[in-house]
Design a protein that fits this description.
Number of strands: 11
Helix content: under 10%
Structural class: mainly beta
Order of helices and strands: EEEEEEEEEEE
Radius of gyration: 14 Å
Distance between the termini: 40 Å
Largest sheet: 7 strands, mixed
Number of helices: 0
Amino acid sequence: QVRVMESGGGSVQPSGSLRISCVASGNTYQSDVMAWYRETPGKQRELVATVNHFGTTVFAEFVKGRFTTSKATAKNEMHLQMNALEPGDTGLYLCNLRRTYPAAGDYWGQGTQVTVIG
């Protein structure tokens, strides 16, 4: 059983910053890959960033240069630092844990709301 929980969302003015966090608890493995997705008004769920167990991050083009990640593998914690926020970044940000070993698994949190008041 894996539980994924996000925290830290809120409201901010354009060009402001927010930091959101994700913690995975339960039966986790170092090989698990964690990722941030978001659901924005009028769009399908889109990938924001993926962090592997080495801490290597791949960002979506639309957040490059603005967002950074940090991950504490031993604690199964992942953070998303969002800078230079734009109204288009408004949405529900969801944490995902994807597992391929020892068996495939896909686990989601409930999400945390980020609102950029434009």
